[in-house]
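Inputs:
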Amino acid sequence: MASDENVRVVLIGGSGYTGFEAIRYLVRHPNAELVGVFGPESELGPMEDFYPQLTKMCGLRQELFEAQKLAALRADLAMLCVPHKVAMSYVPALLEANLRVIDLSADYRLKDPAVYEQWYCPHTDPEHLSEAVYGLPEYYAEEIRAARLVANPGCYPTCAVLALAPIVKAGLIEPAGIVANAISGVSGAGRAPSAKTHFPERNENFEPYGVGSHRHMPEMEQVLTALTGRDVELLFQPHLCPMDRGMLCTIYATPTREATTQQLTETLQAAYADAPFVRVRTDVLPATKHVAYTNFCDVAARAAKGRVVLFSALDNLLKGASGQAVQNMNVMFGLDERAGLY
Amino acid sequence: MASDENVRVVLIGGSGYTGFEAIRYLVRHPNAELVGVFGPESELGPMEDFYPQLTKMCGLRQELFEAQKLAALRADLAMLCVPHKVAMSYVPALLEANLRVIDLSADYRLKDPAVYEQWYCPHTDPEHLSEAVYGLPEYYAEEIRAARLVANPGCYPTCAVLALAPIVKAGLIEPAGIVANAISGVSGAGRAPSAKTHFPERNENFEPYGVGSHRHMPEMEQVLTALTGRDVELLFQPHLCPMDRGMLCTIYATPTREATTQQLTETLQAAYADAPFVRVRTDVLPATKHVAYTNFCDVAARAAKGRVVLFSALDNLLKGASGQAVQNMNVMFGLDERAGLY
Amino acid sequence: MASDENVRVVLIGGSGYTGFEAIRYLVRHPNAELVGVFGPESELGPMEDFYPQLTKMCGLRQELFEAQKLAALRADLAMLCVPHKVAMSYVPALLEANLRVIDLSADYRLKDPAVYEQWYCPHTDPEHLSEAVYGLPEYYAEEIRAARLVANPGCYPTCAVLALAPIVKAGLIEPAGIVANAISGVSGAGRAPSAKTHFPERNENFEPYGVGSHRHMPEMEQVLTALTGRDVELLFQPHLCPMDRGMLCTIYATPTREATTQQLTETLQAAYADAPFVRVRTDVLPATKHVAYTNFCDVAARAAKGRVVLFSALDNLLKGASGQAVQNMNVMFGLDERAGLY
Amino acid sequence: MASDENVRVVLIGGSGYTGFEAIRYLVRHPNAELVGVFGPESELGPMEDFYPQLTKMCGLRQELFEAQKLAALRADLAMLCVPHKVAMSYVPALLEANLRVIDLSADYRLKDPAVYEQWYCPHTDPEHLSEAVYGLPEYYAEEIRAARLVANPGCYPTCAVLALAPIVKAGLIEPAGIVANAISGVSGAGRAPSAKTHFPERNENFEPYGVGSHRHMPEMEQVLTALTGRDVELLFQPHLCPMDRGMLCTIYATPTREATTQQLTETLQAAYADAPFVRVRTDVLPATKHVAYTNFCDVAARAAKGRVVLFSALDNLLKGASGQAVQNMNVMFGLDERAGLY
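Outputs:
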């Protein structure tokens, strides 16, 4: 890519919510250009047919993917906005075609294929697993800059890890016995209708799910352990909250020694002083409305009744998915990390 | 039915929203007993499996319907909470078994089978069409008391007719050229998930539908014409509103002569002085929250800029469906019209 | 009260949400009669002016309270739906007038006046503190039956205690180190508008508050300690959820020994087999929609990743306030515990 | 302003919703710079204290307005995000200081001061009323380009006028007897808490207000009459809808002659072929979710039952206020009309 040129991006999977949000960012990005959108045979056609929001914003059609089309598009980067299992079916061909890849699915997040297979399904591309970089730019910017393949983190792991990592790293809490209680807006469940997401069932309803069984739990443990050098063990408990957008983690941990709210807060502030998208809150607690429709993650820490309580909020589709993907793109291509995201 | 006995009710179609609401009313009704629930083969089992809300409230199972089961249940009344077309497949057998019937579907609302067939589908039980009584107790109480078969009105027609009938009848507005603008909560769309009712599509979204094509339009015209002796012609335009429950009509009409807000209001007050479930509002306008989870319909009238504007609000599942069905039952069996409904 | 007569109830504080809900229950209660509503000088007038929902349901006016009016009303019971501090200003006069009292405020919940004063304000009626019975009928039915003064529990304590008490009592979890993470619908904040409850700030927003400082925390600890004979210590963390009604606690505890989900569940089932308003869930987890607009509390237990996780859901205004008050009334006056509440 | 420089903007009234939205647009605008924010003495301080959303986005403080501060800021433009009456108290000083002005209040929208005073209050700056240009760029771009003072339209008028103007102009409907039924999200009520906007009163509630008395009605009539040369007379009826953002008008009119949906649609398409922010819908009807958080207005037309029905949707705070203000700024300063808005 010549320095005066835009990053040329193809997106695979334009009909789901993360694809849609990625497209919205890309069409207004000052240094990137969306040059193609690909999808499965059953979902081809003008993007505005899938999302009337895109009329007069994006004139592209979702086309059937064929690897040989990529050369003509002179694409630099592919964003994969498809479910796990589907994503890894595309990656080898994309890398082969000399594209760099940001995968928003879970396929390259878990380093150990055995762990992946325990929580997901057989891994069909173990070859590229080891080179994949975990796309959390606050911690892996250098690796992301050099990466061919970036595994964009899960929404819940992004939220929990940004709050926990500095505190665990500083040795302020026990790395085991952590509880991550979390809530998500319903867009996190994707675009396919179901009884669980039927409006009259979901509206005015708050409900736990996935007790001890959510796939983001091993991802959190792996990443926190890798980042902190401590053997992190946590229980993650998600809940569905009757709203569109937003995620909030309330994390409970045991302090290793008497830690004050001020010490905890300063630890977070030191960690994120230069992070453009993490804001450490003091008086005001994180709230989903402060981050909805943005790429920010707000974090805060409190000492209370002998425990450490951490709060973390983000937009599950943006900093939790497509916004973070664009942030990763910015890092990969040497752009201002904030380009197109403020 | 001996006068000291409860009305024994069987309900057909317990898994949808109107079935559920009817069951909630019936299990706490002081003069009725729900003795059986029937459904299709694919949906049998304990009612609490369909609706966890019913645990410790209703111990019945949804059983497969067989006409010969009715005798043993000594049922007096069947409530049909199934879709149109399905309802009329049950009615002949129920009447044959000497049950009285309240049908919550559209199958017996339109008097003219040709009109029914234009808007719905071929009518398979035209024989009982003529004897069916339109179940709007504020206007047809006497006929309902004597009826074997009651056609429970549609939600939108109940809402629009209760506001319009007295005003048209009094000759205060032109019977043609009426516009009924309406909104409904999403429970009105039923319990089957779809893209239209997927929470992230529906929440924070207000949207019109069915321009000139909603099936409740001919029902409104038929009932208003029958009730007022004038040839009522109206345009009905519904919208989906992001909430569970509630319906509100805003109706625009041309006054026949200078009519004041006071005259209009007094006309409504005279019409509903003895109606236990219609409340005429003066200072406070009808709002869906005032009627949600109740069997009330609130109405109001205003003269404004040379037009007459009427407002009407009810709970689409209660006064708009299951509550009205229970009110009809009360009338049919000589009970206090309010029994079990306040 | 003669056995064939209704319980005659006066309600103090009809303009707030708990007063309104109590009135709705009382006007349709088969064995009780609301004979008077009292309020402060600034809020007198027809109840329907405060709540248009009450038109044609309750014709009473909110009158200025004067103790001498009580005799003429031949009231048996006073329900206090006023804030803490205000409630204890009424109690002595009510008891003096030979009424039994159910106080929905916090004024008589904390047994130790020093604890009350630490969390609330100076106590002006310590004399009656010791005789007040904590109105959780699942545990104190016998005492409630005989009580003159019942302290109706807080919403969060009702929710947390119903899930925790049997498990702590059975010695299945450590009594210290418990975390009670909770969410509430916004009606829990009362009827006075504020920036926090302004619709555009609250809607689509999920937010923690009161870290380590919520007044319901000492109430939970006191009640659980009293009920179980163990020294219960917990951290309570509430959150505001964008919905009207409902409360859900997700409780994390350390098992004392290997306890399975089945053992935990059976412990709950044994505790609540005869409780008409507590439902133990197995396959389906508690969800606020299952209990909204009812007096039920749904509980469930799971063993997960070496912890015990408990869930508990109720309607904050009903089982969490006015419904529980009516349940207490039923117990106090020897009525069916479910009367008027199903 | 040199052609290579950004437009330098001061904003007056940063603490309300329109101020906040304008700031969000301005801080990311590629050709504009927000150089100062001014407010009343009671509301000074860092913008992030008013809106935590602005942390790491806008480091400005809201300062006390003093005209002499403007020179040092070298501001080109003032945006007034204050209520009517307050706005006109600033305008003379701003014009005097050689700034161009976009006023988001109603103070300069109504051309006839007598009409203004009938609906609002005495006009204190009639001198500048005649030079003010109505800031609807789809119709007044040329005048806006040259204007010193732009009166940014009301939200409801923008919505109704964009749908109606081409159809009235083309003579397809009668200019009198139009009904504009409209709904708005609650953010339209501003940021001050009240009983009407208290979450538990507003949520799950749909309610009409302002029958025949909303101040946007004369604005609609004035603008449509001016734009079409016909004497437009309409009844405007607004409703509050339980959602944050979005506005939808459903407009009923009498056709002058048989007009088909296709003719109506083509009339709209011809009018807005080159308008970057108006989208004419055909198969899909306008819905608030399609325009929320954007500067688009979606319109559609249908012939139904002898009437013409028009639909129009926009985001009340963006195309209905702050987005339109930025669009006006773009036009005034010769920028791409879409700059910073896509």
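Remarks. The mean pLDDT of chain A is 97. The radius of gyration of chain A is 20 Å.
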